[in-house]
Specification:
51% of the residues lie in helices and 15% in strands. The radius of gyration is 21 Å and the shape is elongated. It has a three-stranded antiparallel beta sheet, covered by helices on one side. A two-stranded antiparallel ribbon has the order 1-2. Strands 3-7 form a two-stranded antiparallel sheet. The protein is built from six helices and seven strands. It folds into two domains: 50 residues, no CATH class; 109 residues, no CATH class.
């Protein structure tokens, strides 16, 4: 979706083979957020502070453009409830497992595993990586955007079956994220 020019020129996002103009690069929600951060940093909501915050937000949007989202996500309430409920269960179970690993005698073995995600959505990859990292006993050590691959460190892994189970848990988490946040078309590929 975005390409970089080599040399001294800055990276300019492209969409469908054409360069985006300044109007398309401006993302007003980001400008608004940056304006609020600017006002918070100055500790004032005076008109001059707000105007300067908007100018700084516009400048940041033009100098450091973000790639546009391919599709607006659609939130499915039931999917979000299932995602949050399962996350809480995973949090409690994994916390108990980590406590057991730290209290039992002997040395816990761990592994770094590779998980190739099913979708090509950066947003789904980010959500999945964050949810996996928040559960005790696993942490994302690398996220490879080019191949949509997560590398995670998993605690207390002793054999290939446990590696496969950890990989399966990550892929199930990705599916829950997809069911909670899908594109208007309803397909997994354009999700979020």
């Amino acid at each position: 979706m975005s390409t970089e020019k080599t040399g001294s020129t800055a990276a300019v996002p492209e969409q469908h083979g054409r360069r985006l103009g300044p109007r398309q690069l401006l993302q007003w929600p980001m400008v608004l957020w940056l304006t609020l951060v600017w006002a918070a940093l100055w500790g004032s909501v005076a008109p001059l502070i707000l105007v300067s915050g908007v100018l700084v937000g516009v400048l940041v949007s033009l100098v450091f453009p973000l790639p546009p989202l391919r599709a607006a996500p659609r939130v499915h309430l039931w999917g979000v409830l299932v995602l949050l409920g399962r996350f809480v269960v995973d949090l409690v179970v994994a916390s108990a497992q980590v406590v057991w690993v730290t209290l039992r005698p002997g040395t816990a073995r761990s592994a770094v595993i590779e998980v190739d995600l099913v979708t090509d959505s950066d947003l789904v990859m980010t959500f999945t990586a964050q949810l996996v990292s928040l559960v005790p006993g696993s942490v994302i050590v690398e996220a490879r955007r080019s191949t949509h691959t997560l590398f995670l460190h998993v605690l207390d892994v002793t054999d290939e079956t446990q590696v496969d189970d950890a990989r399966k848990r990550v892929l199930e988490q990705e599916q829950r994220v997809l069911r909670a946040f899908t594109s208007p078309a309803g397909t997994g590929e354009g999700a979020a």
